[in-house]
Amino acid sequence: MKWPLLVPLCLVVEAGTPVCGNDEVERNLVLVEKVAYHKGLPPEAVSVMLEFAMSLRMGTTLCPRVLKCMIPATMVPQKAVVRAVVWLSVGKIPISTQVLFLKWVLTMFDLIDGKEQLRAIYGFIFSFITDENLCPFICHLLYLLTRKENVRVYRVRKLLELQSKLGRQPFLLHLLSLYKVFCPELVTLSIPSRMRVCTRKLHQMHILPACYRMNQSSVCSLQSGFRNHSLPWKSTLIRMVKRNDSQVASSISLLPAQMGSLLGSSVALQYLDCVQDESALLRLNFWLGYALHEEFLFCDGVTHNSEESLQFLNKLLSTQHFLQEGFSSSEVFLYKFLNIWDGSFLRPQILGLLSNIPVVPSSQIGQLLFQPLMQLFFTSSIFFKVGFPDRNMTLSGFKDSVIELIHFVGRLASVGLQLEGCHTLLLSFVLDFYETVCDTFLKYGLPLVVMPPAGVFYPALLATDPVSVDRLAYIMYRYKVNLTSAKSQGTVAEAFHISRQTFREFNHYIIIMVNCLWNSRMFQTSNLDMKLELRRQKLDVKSDCAFQDPKSWNWYLEYLFTQGWDGLQQFVQSNVSWKTAAEVRCPDVPSSQES
User: Fold this and answer.
1) Where is the signal peptide (predicted)?
2) Same-domain pairing of 15 and 146
């Protein structure tokens, strides 16, 4: 169906043409509505119909009806929007219709093919702010258009005058807070801290890619205090964008100012990282917050297009890895999403985002992270459990929070190993985690050493597979290297978050391992504490096998070293006094001193 056949009447209709009883007009409008709600209107049709409605060629009756069916298939020409805004100054359009038009502009804002012409008439748009009926919507539109050069003293004064007249209205406060972000010296008004942070993240965001370009203004409403104005068009827009996604993607190319293009360009990301453009970073942060909330939170964790969501999260992860830091908007999203997440939907991507968030203060980490993760961990399958600890830790920020995080994972691992019967797969991933933890001081430069809990140590030591034992031996060797290095620097241990208790735990584990792997004294009466611990961990060891002949034992050990058991070799050489089989003598456990 070609548009030249649908809109000729709108082009030639004369002013004052009657509406009542005009069957030709009704037929054409019904046809326009049918196409608009089914396929959406092409850009040229949007221009024609918007001009027809706002010019009131056939009076005020048809204007609301036309506006309600103005559903673009791809984009909205900014020239048509500018002409429609100018029509507001004629004074013949009813207030209710003016409000409806502004709601339409706010809803379609990210589908407008450019904003330069709208910003060119910023002062003209600002003049409507004195109308109490239009003020909330004008403030919202200005909020989306404002640049630093638009902030002027007389505009700040006008907003303050309106505030004294109307009270501390949210729409006025948010526009003032945005002005204060750009020019703090011009706005002396005290803005609530929550509103300031929100404004810094949400201002000027007209950068959404095709798959997310259906409702930016409504998300801005939900997150920044402006009311949601998109309800008349929202469902139709979502359906239209999903249906025409490929067409939109091919017909809309992102401008250098549209930050959505950054996620697909390593060159642009490198430039952004180098120039540290605060405005660009804030807009990018808002876009991420919008997209994550709209796609995942506002639909209770169930998306309409899982493949689209997968691609989006993978691109976000790639961007964060390139920048080597996470975005604050994705951090806020995760704290909310964990409460509704089922633990399986896009699990690798969600856990990947978790690994990029900075460590939060220890007073908040329990409520924000530990509680929802603990519920997921204990109620999920073995495959979720092995996916949880296998993440790169973010070893930055507050040391106390890092310690709490390590202890938390240790508690989860201990209980998880009991629940899963010391499953080899889960134990392998837990040891992956502690291979990172044991080197926090030397490898990551974080001044702390945290030992694994007994619920992890004993299952690894008494594992039926030799690989786990070898890996535990390597981990304990690296713990010794880290502790020795910390002491050799002549720094007070407590300043490094390494307490005497840490040294006692290490020495205890070393004695247990040497008695188990070397001296065959593991289950003697003196090791009552160990027996009790094994009973508490519900571990059952049937016998203690060892060579009684020291020479045979040393020959066997040398054989193991030639078979690639490097962890065991490093552990024995660093903790046991021994010589080759030809120089056999009874080995002794070295005396490990506490700090």
Assistant:
1) 1-21
2) yes
Inside any domain, residue 250: no
User: Is residue 430 a contact partner of residue 456, using CB atoms and an 8 Å limit?
Assistant: yes
Q: Are 171 and 135 a contacting pair, CB within 8 Å?
A: yes
Mean per-residue pLDDT over the chain, rounded: 75
What's the farthest any 2 CA atoms get from each other in the chain?
A: 115
Locate 311 and state its tokens.
């691609």
Length of the chain: 595
Q: What is the DSSP letter of 397?
A: B
pTM: 0.48
Q: Does residue 51 register a pLDDT over 50?
A: yes
Whether pLDDT at 293 is above 50: yes
450: phi > 0 → left, psi -120 to 50 → alpha, else beta; which? beta
Pair 301, 438 in one domain = no
Instruction: Please check the confidence at residue 271 and state whether its pLDDT lies above 90.
Output: no
pLDDT tens for 456-484 read: 999 999 998 889 999 999 999 999 999 98
CB contact set of 559 (below 8 Å; sequence gap of 6+) = none
pLDDT digits over 397-409, tens only? 457 778 888 898 8
Considering the domain architecture, whether residues 125 and 269 belong to the same structural domain is answered as no
413 CB contacts (<8 Å, ≥6 apart)?
389, 426, 430, 433, 453, 455, 456
Decide which of 350, 383, 416 is a domain's last residue: 383
Instruction: Give the up-direction half-sphere exposure of residue 484: CA atoms within 13 A in the CB hemisphere.
Output: 10
Name the residue among 382, 307, 296, 309 with its Cα closest to residue 339.
296
Give the pLDDT confidence of 559-583 residue by residue, as tens digits. Answer: 778 888 888 888 888 887 665 555 5
- For residue 435, the model assigns a pLDDT of 94
Do 145 and 15 have their domain in common?
A: yes
- The residue-averaged pLDDT of 226-246 equals 64
Give yes or no for a contact between 158 and 139, defined as CB atoms under 8 angstroms apart: no
Across residues 259-285, what is the average pLDDT? 70
In a domain, 255, yes or no: no
Per-residue pLDDT, averaged over 339-360, amounts to: 78
Domain housing 340: 263-383
Q: Kindly state whether residues 337 and 271 are assigned to the same domain.
A: yes
Same domain, 379 and 405: no
What are the contacts of 347-350 at 24+ separation with CB within 8 A?
Answer: 347/384, 347/387, 348/387, 349/310, 349/313, 349/314, 349/317, 350/313
- 324 CA to centre of own chain: 14
Which of helix, strand or coil describes residue 86? Answer: helix
